[in-house]
Amino acid sequence: MQHYAGLDIHKKNCQAIICTEKGNIIKKGKIPTDPEKIQEFFQEFKELTIAIEACNHWEHIFEILESKGHHVVLAHPLKTRIIAEARVKTDKVDAKILMHLLRTGFLPTSYIPCKEIRDLRNLVRRRIFLGRYTARLKNKI
């Protein structure tokens, strides 16, 4: 039986929800953004399909979940917002919407490059940041 999960990620905590193919909720909760706690929350499930939204911390969570054999899908944040406009916007609601969009096949996804490309992109981002920071300091002087 296939299980689906939605994970709304923040800096210190994540809101997670897991359901069956039919949409019956099996498990939900708020977990710290800590590798051990994330693995502990998902450990009883094998080969989950998990939807996470692209944010600043997605790569770290992605690598943890993928290393445990789960299939992780990266939701496109702008397109997901258009589809799932809600009057009540909470972390629980966001996780549930991600899970249901994934389960029904309506989740707009983003491309996830391989680890080497992600590392190169981060290196380039860091270099650009340092170049701009250097220019800012020179202008102040």
Polypeptide structure, described:
This protein starts with a strand and ends with a helix. Strands 3-2-1-4-5 form a five-stranded mixed sheet. It has helices at 35-42, 58-67, 77-83, 91-104, 115-140; strands at residues 3-9, 13-20, 25-32, 49-53, 71-75. It has five helices and five strands, in the order E-E-E-H-E-H-E-H-H-H. The mean pLDDT is 89. The chain has two domains: 3-110, 2-Layer Sandwich (Nucleotidyltransferase, domain 5); 113-141. With 141 residues, the chain is of the alpha/beta class.
Question: Can you give me a brief rundown of this structure?
Answer:
By secondary structure, the chain is of the alpha/beta class. Helices cover 46% and strands 23% of the residues.
Secondary structure: elements and pairs:
Layout: E1 3-9, E2 13-20, E3 25-32, H1 35-42, E4 49-53, H2 58-67, E5 71-75, H3 77-83, H4 91-104, H5 115-140
Parallel strand pairs: 1-4, 4-5
Antiparallel strand pairs: 1-2, 2-3
What is the name of the CATH superfamily of the largest domain? ATPase, nucleotide binding domain
Percentage beta strand: 15-25%
The CATH C-level name of the largest domain is: Alpha Beta
Q: How many distinct helices?
A: 5
| Spans where pLDDT lies below 50 across 5 or more residues | none
Oligomer: single chain
* SSE series: EEEHEHEHHH
Distance between the termini: 64 Å
CATH architect. name of the largest domain: 2-Layer Sandwich
Q: Please tell me the total number of domains.
A: 2
